[in-house]
């Protein structure tokens, strides 16, 4: 039996616990945040677990857990850090010839003149997106220059606090009426996808973010082969074993919007047959290399 350490006990933990146990992998919740840890007398021994699932999202807590647990991770520190940096991901993908939205990276503080020049590159509205948040946190849409500069002012106020680690954001083209997909790639192979769609009432009320955590509904879909090849190319370009790839499709365009190296696992029925067999094999492979 392989002992797998998982930092969060939310949806992914609950969904994969039983299927992995059936495949010889015992899933353990190993909390690393919102607690106290005596470094000289830690709550874990180095041989308590064989492998970690994905590196903790809070990188400081992750570093402590990594030092105390002494285990390899399916997605390690480097992969989580890479995916967290949205601008780095888009830059790598564009250099690799993969389709991404037109984007400008802004490292605060910059002058109002520079911000105006950024806004004028696009046909309004524009999307303003913090560079390292998840679940759609802080993402805003600006329909005119005044609104755009106001959003940037708020970001500058936040960035005035010296404890703010990331003082950058993205300005991107807005793709109206785009259909949103989250596609999962495991060790280089596409293993399933969901379409994320807002309820009609939410759309009528002006909601436009398709994150499941903000009320969107995820439905399993079969993707064209060319789309599967695209997301596999994304994972290969970033060298991330277990990756969620977000696609936006407008009818005439298909772009890679974001990636997530700590993706939530949905219900098994929304993935390709054998998903958990592949996941168990990937975890076992990491444990064997330790």
From TrEMBL:
<keyword id="KW-0067">ATP-binding</keyword>
<feature type="domain" description="ATP-grasp">
    <location>
        <begin position="90"/>
        <end position="287"/>
    </location>
</feature>
<keyword id="KW-0547">Nucleotide-binding</keyword>
<dbReference type="GO" id="GO:0046872">
    <property type="term" value="F:metal ion binding"/>
</dbReference>
<dbReference type="Pfam" id="PF08443">
    <property type="entry name" value="RimK"/>
</dbReference>
<dbReference type="GO" id="GO:0005524">
    <property type="term" value="F:ATP binding"/>
</dbReference>
<dbReference type="InterPro" id="IPR011761">
    <property type="entry name" value="ATP-grasp"/>
</dbReference>
<keyword id="KW-0436">Ligase</keyword>
<dbReference type="GO" id="GO:0005840">
    <property type="term" value="C:ribosome"/>
</dbReference>
<dbReference type="GO" id="GO:0016879">
    <property type="term" value="F:ligase activity, forming carbon-nitrogen bonds"/>
</dbReference>
<keyword id="KW-0689">Ribosomal protein</keyword>
<keyword id="KW-0687">Ribonucleoprotein</keyword>
<dbReference type="InterPro" id="IPR013815">
    <property type="entry name" value="ATP_grasp_subdomain_1"/>
</dbReference>
<dbReference type="GO" id="GO:0005737">
    <property type="term" value="C:cytoplasm"/>
</dbReference>
<dbReference type="InterPro" id="IPR013651">
    <property type="entry name" value="ATP-grasp_RimK-type"/>
</dbReference>
<protein>
    <submittedName>
        <fullName>Ribosomal protein S6--L-glutamate ligase</fullName>
    </submittedName>
</protein>
């Amino acid at each position: 039996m392989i002992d797998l350490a998982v930092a969060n006990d939310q949806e992914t933990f609950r969904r994969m616990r039983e299927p992995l146990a059936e495949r010889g992998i015992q899933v353990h919740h190993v909390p690393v945040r919102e607690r106290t840890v005596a470094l000289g007398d830690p709550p874990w021994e180095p041989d308590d677990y064989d492998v970690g699932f994905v590196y903790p999202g809070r990188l400081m807590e992750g570093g402590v857990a990594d030092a105390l647990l002494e285990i390899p991770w399916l997605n390690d520190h480097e992969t989580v850090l890479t995916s967290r940096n949205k601008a780095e991901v888009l830059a790598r993908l564009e250099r690799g010839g993969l389709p991404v939205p037109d984007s400008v990276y802004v490292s605060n503080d910059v002058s109002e003149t520079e911000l105006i020049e950024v806004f004028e590159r696009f046909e309004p509205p524009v999307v303003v997106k913090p560079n390292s948040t998840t679940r759609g946190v802080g993402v805003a849409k600006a329909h005119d220059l005044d609104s755009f500069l106001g959003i940037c002012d708020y970001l500058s106020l936040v960035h005035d606090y010296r404890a703010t680690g990331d003082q950058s954001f993205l300005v991107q083209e807005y793709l109206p009426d785009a259909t949103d997909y989250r596609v999962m790639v495991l060790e280089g192979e596409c293993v399933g996808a969901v379409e994320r769609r807002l309820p009609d009432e939410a759309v009528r009320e002006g909601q436009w973010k398709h994150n499941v955590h903000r009320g969107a509904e995820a439905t399993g879909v079969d993707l064209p082969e060319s789309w599967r090849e695209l997301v596999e190319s994304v994972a290969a370009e970033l060298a991330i074993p277990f990756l969620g790839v977000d696609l936006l499709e407008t009818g005439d365009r298909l772009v890679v919007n974001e990636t997530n190296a700590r993706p939530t696992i949905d219900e098994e029925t929304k993935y390709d047959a054998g998903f958990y067999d592949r996941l168990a094999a990937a975890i076992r492979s990491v444990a064997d290399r330790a």
